[in-house]
Amino acid sequence: MAIDLEELYRDLHEHPELSFREHRKAAIVAGHLLGLGLAVHEGIGGTGVVGVLENGPGPTVLLRADMDGLPVQEETGLPYASRVRATGPDGNDVPVMHACGHDVHVTALLGAVEVLAGDRNAWSGTLVAVFQPAEERGGGAQAMVEDGLFQRVPVPDVVLGQHVAPFPVGWVGLHAGVAMASPDALTVTLHGVGGHGSRPETTIDPVTMAAATTLRLNSIVSRELAATSPAVLTVGQLHAGTKHNVIPERATLGISVRSFDESVRSTVLAAIGRVVRGEAAASGAVREPDIVQEDHFPVTVNDADATERTRVALRGAFGGQHVIDPGHISGSEDVGNLATAAGAPLVFWFLGGADPQLFAGASNPMAVAAALPSNHSPRFAPVIQPTLTHGVDALVAAAREWLA
Ligand code: ZN
Ligand code: ZN
User: Most buried of 7, 92, 115, 284 (most Cβ within 10 A)?
Assistant: First the structure.
């Protein structure tokens, strides 16, 4: 019986799971892959699932979807909105939402496998469908590789994948070369001396230290990098204190950096260290701040030749005017780790997921898109259809281009 993709999507959306905890989703995926007649490998890199369909001689094509949600409180108001809460990696109770659209990726990949498995006379080769854990923390793809992914399943000749984004449904964005930034995540702990809020002169206030540090960090990109050297620095977390009148002992900052080139990256990371230590010293901190590097993975590079070949196939499916080049973007992806480990070219594209009615009559659709809730927003809400159909079509068109 055919998979009801819309129902599957609503179910996955309503039941998001945090990175490396995608147990429910992995079981659902494995069940569908078995039902479609694929050889199924479970538990690779934690919760990773791979389906393999060997269908005669020819190339091996890897299609990849990521499965994890984010610690975000959903505010879409959709009938299938998530109410899920879970224990985060630091032990705190957090809301969970598919705020990045990975539920679209899982559903579309299952739909594409169903199409290809049901049409085996039309192609020849091997299909490898990878459902990856923990893209949001950057470790999922590498965890699968280190758990022997390519000893357990055929090594692909090309790695293909997609990410839903808030531009019009029916559009696909594809850029050859460096397509996405390299991310770094850092946690900074600033040490003060706590005390009574009425007697700040007896303390070293880490709240003031954190505020000054945040402002100064936000000047690094604008004051220390050339206009031709793009990078992003965001302080996404700032935590201190428990009560109005208690000056706390410490404050923590969570910092995200995006860069496209190693020398820019090292300039920014060095500046962060200098600013953090400098502001602590300016506050009279009695202890050096702690700076912990959490996650890092490389830039996402689309192979030039493979991208042009895939672009032709996507133009055939969507029409030339709907296949755009967004340039390189500041988001990040760890899909490149799969391609690097396989020694295969990568082609990764963006799939429009925003309601086409929002763009009716718009002279500049990308300006409309920029005003919509983006990935990671509590209001990010891809329209179910025709996004899922286009997601399936894009994967099938690209895979068929590479399969014999
Ligand atoms: Zn994301
Ligand atoms: Zn994502």
Answer: 115
